Amino acid sequence: MSILSKSIALAAGAIVAAASLIVPAQAEDGAGQQLYPLFTYRTGPYAPSFIPFGAGNIDYLRYVNEVEGGVNGVKILIQECETAYTIERGIECYERYKDGYNGALTAAIYPHSSGLDVALTDKARIDKVSIVSPGGGQNIATDGRVFPYQYPLIFDYWSEAQIIVDYIAQQAGGYDKLKGVKIATLYHDSGYGRDTIEPLGILAKKYGFEDIQIPVPHPGEQQQAQWQQIRRAGADWVFLRGWGVMTPVAIKTAARVGFPVDHIIGDIWSGSEDDARPAGAAAKGYLAVSVFPPGTDYGILKTLKENVLDKGKSDLKDNSKFGTVYYNYGVIEAITFVEALRTGQKKFGNKPLNAEEGQWALENLNIGQNRIKELGAEGLISPLKTSIDNHKGETIAAKIIQWNGESWDTKTDWIKADSTLFADVIKEKAAAYAAEKGITPREAASN
Amino acid sequence: MTTIQDDILATGPAASIPSGSTLLRIAVIVAGLAIAFGVVPAIATDYWLSSIIIPTIVMGLAGISLNLLQGYAGLVSLGSAAFMSVGVFSAYNLILRVPGLPLPVVLLLAGLITAAVGIFFGLPALRIKGFYLGASTLGAQFFFQWLFTNYPWFSNESQSLTISAPRLVVFGYDLQSPVGRYLLVATVTALLIGLAFLVVKSRLGREWMAIRDMETAASVLGIRVARRKLQAYAVSSFFLGITGVLWGFAYLGTADAYTYNLDKSFQVLFIVLIGGTATIFGNFLGAAFIVLTPILLDHLVLAANVAYLSDQGAITNLQRVIFGVIIIFILIKEPDGLSAWIRRGVEALQTRFRS
């Protein structure tokens, strides 16, 4: 009994101490700063991709804060919140930071998880907070009339499917040469993996290539049967939509059945160093789609190396990750955030933006070629222009990169996606969603 | 086990003759309801409601569901999350395909569908026991994950296989706001707690405990063991189905097959272990522990501002280690769960007042 009461007293003491610690922290003033709630997953199965990704984000924002003195004088306050890539923890983080933190305002939230992006759809609409998912958002949310607060910025899997077909057509010598070509899609059997089935069906009908769809169950450590099937079908190209361990296993199994590795094109989540390197020699010549081109030769990367990395201020523990796909992804994402702030400040003045102003800024984002040059991001990002009609960006594009056994080489310039091609299908789906949810779509010209 | 004695004592003479203890009980219930429906919605912020109170209550309810099966009937299940997913997918499809069905009816039907599924997966319990039974309920876990991933019909052909919560409307009231969702969760939970008490104190509940404590003796006494076991699966699954709907619709706002994975089943199991087996309210202690401790640790790190002293990743991992240590500590110090603490505390107070 005495031990019991002691431990209860101890626990109570700890809680009181915790509470008293929290109170003075609340008093710390964030007024005049712009909050950037950084949703992390430094733990859990996907931590290896987050660590360089988060570092890219943090390093760029530190550079803006410390070297440029903030965004037009407004400092960015980074607050990390660990989600472990679970939706539950993510919702807690969202609720914690949606209204700002100690006076620092929230302009937008980057959930860093497709699942969380979907989970926040209704909440964001009620709270009027923008949810931004570069490269991993819901394609349907391209239609900003129905989804004012969702931004699948920069890229989506439908455009990816189209870019793959475009590249294959280039290799074949034109779209008219696609007739009879066999393109097999080997996909992770999940919502993410299935997302290219529909657009490839549409493209196959349009160009006359043969569309073969082959699922791989999660996590994808066994693919012998699938690759035999690809061989038997006589596929010319394989579009590999892997995730995690599935990608290196696919490359190795392809080598075993004798499928040429330079005719396998990985998806954007199959195109990092950590996807190719584990496959060893078999990966040499492997292709991938990239919206986050790796490399350290870009102006902004050099600036970061000089001002952040070399000064020991980087969030990276392992500097060899500098300039990798995921690191550069983080830098690109942070650039979209800072540029959105600049856009908003032009209209609302040089001060931190609130959620409503952030929403306007994201919807009127325009990172043109000149601005990209100023940023030192030529070749790193392609022009990005959003509107109510297009929350993804009107001129999105990707490059094809190739693994040389050590690192990635850039094989093509930006291949632009045709934003009109699937526009009707997306509008149709968004309209169906609006009907199901009882939402009245905004007019495209309302602001 | 002291808990059984408590349960039997509670259904003894004290329950039928109004006494001081009964009045006290009524007072506690009234006070609880007043706090749940009056005080909490009035003072809690959106943050507290949406990310702390709602998940704690729903997970507590999941704990009750499993406790009915495991704590009272002594049957094992590692498939709690699978039954939750059956509930949420049933409810989604009912709303989608039977327009105009009111939400309370949807909840009830989803519970009944899950109960039917639970009976099916409970059938092995008639033949096998313990560890083997655990493995068979694990089958439910994998089966439903496979079913909901491979048949997009269940998610209305959604490309991402994710279902999105419908608009929550009850008798014309929109429950979309945090307070609305809280009231929905609190009401359903209050009703289910009442039902759980009725079941546990009834003949059914007592026969479950008899089977749990000694199956042979129970069957000699004329208890129809097989039927009672299947009923345990049915009741537990009914509760889990409704819990699953609340988790998806009132808390997450979305659901897919992976939302209700094996991790979630283990979480429910931990809630039962930490809260205490064969209790009702103990489950809420367990749920609060599971939901709140990681958040509290996170806030502590934030408040202490040690983030810049060390690597963020290491701190996050350290939080998990601390969380694990606390669980082990509790289970060693108090194998009967947190509810045993509270019960002993109350007993100690009572003896002090009597003397």
Automatic annotation (TrEMBL), chain A:
Residues 39-302 form the Leucine-binding protein domain. Pfam families: Peripla_BP_6 (PF13458). It comes from the Bacteria. CDD domains: PBP1_ABC_ligand_binding-like. The keyword tRNA-binding does not apply. Coiled coil: none annotated. Gene3D superfamilies: 3.40.50.2300. Residues 1-27 form the signal peptide. SUPFAM superfamilies: Periplasmic binding protein-like I (SSF53822). Keywords: Signal. Belongs to the leucine-binding protein family. This is Branched-chain amino acid transport system substrate-binding protein.
From TrEMBL, chain B:
Keywords: Cell membrane, Membrane, Transmembrane, Transmembrane helix. It holds the Pfam family BPD_transp_2. It comes from Pararhizobium capsulatum DSM 1112. This is Branched-chain amino acid transport system permease protein. It comes from the Bacteria. It is a multi-pass membrane protein. Its main location: membrane. The keyword Cell membrane applies. The chain crosses the membrane at residues 23-43, 49-68, 75-95, 101-123, 130-148, 182-200, 232-253, 265-282, 314-332. InterPro entries: ABC_transp_permease, LivM-like. It is found in: Cell membrane. The keyword Transmembrane helix applies.
